[in-house]
Amino acid sequence: MNQTVMTQTLLSVKDLSVEFVGHKSTVHAVNGVNLRVNAGEIVGIVGESGCGKSTAVKGILGLLQAPGKVTGGSAELTGHGDLLSIKNKNLRKVRGASVGYVAQNPFGSLNPIYSIEEQFRNILKAHGQPSAKNVARERARAMLTSVGIAGPDRVLDGYSHQLSGGMAQRVVIAMAMLLEPELIIADEPTTGLDVTVQRQILDLIRDRVVDSTRGILLVTHDLGVIAQYCHRVVVMYAGKVVEAGSVETVFLNPAHPYTSALLGAIPRPGHELTRLLGSVPDLRVVPTDCSFRPRCKHAFEACSVSPDLREIAPDHLVACHLSERVGHAAS
Amino acid sequence: MATKTVKKQSNFRDFVQMHKFAVAGAFFIIVLILASLFAPLPYDPEAPNPGVGISPPSADHWFGTDITGGDVFSRTIAAAWIDLSLALAGTFLSLIIGVPLGLLTSVKKRWSDNLVRGMDAFQAFPLLILALVLVSLSGNKLYMVVVAIALINIPRYMRLIRSEVLSLREARFMEATTAVGVPLPRALRKHVLPNVMGMITAQTTLTMANAIVVIATLSFLGIGVAPPTPSWGSMIRAGSSNMISGEWWVAFFPGLFVLLCVWILNQLSDAISDFNTRTIR
Amino acid sequence: MPLLELEGVSKQFHARGGKGIVRAVSNVSLKINAGETVALIGESGSGKSTLGRLVLRLLEPDEGAVRFDGVDLTQLSVKEMREMRSKLQVVFQEPFESLNPRMSIGDIVGEPLIIHDRGLNSDARKQRVRETLERVGLSPDSSTRLPGQLSGGQQQRVGIARAIITNPKLIVLDEPTSSLDLSVRAQILSLLADLQRELGLAYLFISHDISTVEYVSQRIAVMYLGEILETGPVSEVIRDPRHPYTRALLSSRLSTDPNESLPRLRLIGDIGSPTEVRAIGCVLAPRCPMAIDACRSQIIQLIEFSPNHEVACIRAEETSDALLSNSISGGGSN
């Protein structure tokens, strides 16, 4: 993967916390997450279900459903200030214009009662851009062509239910990019799609950032997607970032036992699968120790104190006490 | 393998804890039925008291008296017995015919489709009017009121159970059941029925509420339960003429009881549905 | 004699809305030997799950024979088939949906014994349930729980326990790990491998994930739009795929090594519709960069390419990455 030299920060998330407050208990879904997306970069957030990766990006975008609530932190979008403190109405303007969002299920993002063309026009209207019929259609057509749709007119005149999953996701990506936002946040954009279609979509998303000032935050549970498409990766576990850094560093020299276990759980002929025992911790209790401790085969005394995320090498952050032991590599 | 330590049990105590209000309502209805049967009422509900005449609520007559001097409180409570027991009987009849019909018509056969279509046509008929005609033709026989309630509610049960069972049969665990080799009767008993029980219970409380309204409507129109036997519908009718002259209490209290019962039963139905979906998670 | 032998199995459905027919499975033949894992790989609409259900006779084939232990299942009466089911089991993709949410784990796992082992008294049955739960890595205490109280991985273990309790010879595994998290997936795959070794089970492993298939199976059959396009020993098919579709499927796999990238082959557009009527010609022709006129006008059948390795492509000899990537057509068309 090409290392990008541009270092202009697009998005900077600091200490993001999200809670789901219930009658009897509060789920601490995201606990102090830090991450950064630079221009020209694809940053992946990876983790298993319940680790808080989707919740975190929904929190950044102000898309959390009650009882979910951002309880702390900031998400600075360069040129627009802290997304978390923008009022609802203005946030809607920023979403779409400056941040595009692609959700996992494309059909959930498309309105079944409007034609695709009308939905493109509605986006332009909502953001006060020229939306005359011919103008809008021309822009939509250009955008659909750029996401690899060969017959854009047929798609524009049709409705979402006439599209295959892959086509619908292309349309959603085209919509997310219509206003040319600097940042695109894609939450499992290819999870429901077939493998031969998945790669087309990912290529498409990547083509948006190569040699550009744009950036992409990609949420996925698929390590292959991260390895092949992302520049940097953020590994989450139990609502926290446990490891972050360039993809090469993290994947080839994982420093957190959880990252190692995840990489070892991918079936490869001739390799014994890593058996990560136990299950994710109950997020209703705020742990004082390392949340991975009960499942970690390297756990020792120091793990009774929750480790901080610290830099162990340039652009390689790990939240693990093992990394403090000189010369130790987790395996 | 770590197992979660929270152990949930889908029992009655949990239901009471989660839906205190609905349970209190159900308790109220039970007390009402018991009181109407066994409690010593201050006055004879069926005996007129011409000496008293119509009078507003007072310490002697809590809900006031009607034009014949009958005590509205005693009559309202006494009416609960006849109204609620008829409603219960009608609901029971709907249940024992509607549920098997629903199960039967859930098999994908031509005759079951025809039966469902027939029932649809039947439902298109204004059933309340049918009930009215039936009861008056029978010469105001009370059992006909029960039959009328069943006629109205059997098609509803049937449709509901049928659609629920049809969607259950598509469920993956039913396919697994077939793959295990479970014969159909056992599959219906062990897999289908437990999964529709909650819905049946919720529907039954709704049917009960509907039956109370039907009975009140019929007796309001002078059909079914006839005076001097007290019933809420006929009491409302008797009191409606007093309304204009400001004597509100005669119709108000039986009306309030109909409202209360229907409301409570609706709440109870919601509570049961809610509990039903919660217990499997 | 193979444990399972499919011969010319076909299944059609009426398309939704009554327009035309869906050829879900067309003329499929396949063999599975005792103790062996054969993987059925394909994308959505490939008919792989339908084929799994035809094997189990959860669906009746329109044509063809399904011979299990030498007996044609399609000819059995309902009662005979029910008895056969103790030897032929299934684990589904959706762990929670495949368990009755109102039945305790113990009852779910014990039910096959009630049907197939009537001589067993209640105590003996409970003992077997406890043993089976332990064998799949669940605590025997979990028998009093409801499925909703378990995690996804535990639920799938329950599904596996239900499948093995009658000592079957063959288990159809219909995407058993697709809905599970990575670490849980590894646990389940290891469990399935252990059980196969200990109990001598044969698996028909249905999946869309090449890495999983490569890990678990000895032989592989690649399906596309209801037809098997390539079949053979897994190592050979993956090392030297001869069908353009297999090659594209392999190249769509994303390596977790950031420095390794596989050749980028793209099929044109999205997966075709199984409703299209197509008497002759290759199913992949509309998407295949290698397609020539003959691909659309000939009857294409599986032919032996090398011992045990069959390919349904008239250009199988020529198939190469170069041929496929030279003709890349950017993106998709509708």
Order of helices and strands of chain C: EEEHEEHEHHHEHEHEEHHHEEH
Q: Indicate the structural class of chain B.
A: mainly alpha
Oligomer: heterotrimer
Mean of all residue-level pLDDT scores of chain C: 89
Nearest-integer average pLDDT of chain B: 86
Domain unit count of chain B: 1
Strand order of the largest sheet of chain C: 6-7-8-3-9-10-12-11
CATH topological fold name of the largest domain in chain C: Rossmann fold
Number of helices of chain B: 10
Total count of helical runs of at least 4 residues of chain C: 11
The percent range for helix content of chain B is: over 70%
What gross morphology of chain B would you assign? elongated
Greatest contact between two chains: A-C, 50 and 45 residues
- Indicate the CATH class of chain B: Mainly Alpha
CATH top level of the largest domain in chain C is Alpha Beta
Order of helices and strands of chain B: HHHHHHHHHH
In CATH, the topology of chain B is named MetI-like fold
CATH homology superfamily of the largest domain in chain C: P-loop containing nucleotide triphosphate hydrolases
- Which value, in Å, is the CA radius of gyration of chain C? 21 Å
Describe this structure in words.
The complex is a heterotrimer of chains A (331), B (281) and C (334). Chain A has 2 domains: 9-98 and 181-324, Rossmann fold (3-Layer(aba) Sandwich), CATH 3.40.50.300; 110-179, no CATH class. Helices cover 31% and strands 24% of the residues of chain A. Chain A has 11 helices and 12 strands. Chain A has helices at residues 53-61, 88-97, 106-109, 116-126, 133-146, 152-157, 165-177, 195-209, 223-229, 247-252, 257-264, and strands at 9-21, 26-38, 41-46, 68-77, 81-82, 99-102, 183-187, 215-220, 232-237, 240-246, 310-313, 316-318. Chain A has an 8-stranded mixed β-sheet with strand order 6-7-8-3-9-10-12-11, with helices on both faces. A 4-stranded antiparallel β-sheet of chain A has the order 2-1-4-5, covered by helices on one side. In chain A, helix 4 (116-126) crosses helix 5 (133-146) and helix 7 (165-177) packs parallel to helix 8. Chain B is mainly α. Chain B has a single domain (13-278), classed as MetI-like fold. Chain B has helices at 12-18, 20-38, 72-104, 110-124, 127-137, 142-169, 172-180, 184-220, 232-243, 249-278. Chain C folds into 2 domains: 4-223, P-loop containing nucleotide triphosphate hydrolases (Rossmann fold, 3-Layer(aba) Sandwich); 240-326, no CATH class. Chain C has 11 helices and 12 strands. Chain C has helices at 48-55, 78-84, 105-116, 122-135, 152-164, 182-199, 210-216, 234-239, 244-251, 293-297, 321-326; strands at residues 4-14, 21-32, 37-41, 63-68, 71-72, 88-91, 170-174, 202-207, 219-224, 227-233, 303-306, 309-311. In chain C, the strands form 2 sheets. Chain C has an 8-stranded mixed β-sheet with strand order 6-7-8-3-9-10-12-11, sandwiched between helices. In chain C, strands 2-1-4-5 form a 4-stranded antiparallel β-sheet, covered by helices on one side. In chain C, strand 4 and strand 5 form a beta hairpin. Chain C is globular and about 65 Å long. Chain C starts with a strand and ends in an 8-residue tail after the last helix. The model of chain C is unreliable at 326-334 (pLDDT under 50). The chains are: A alpha/beta (331), B mainly alpha (281), C alpha/beta (334). At the A-C interface, helix 7, helix 8, helix 9, helix 10 and helix 11 of A face helix 6, helix 7 and helix 9 of C.
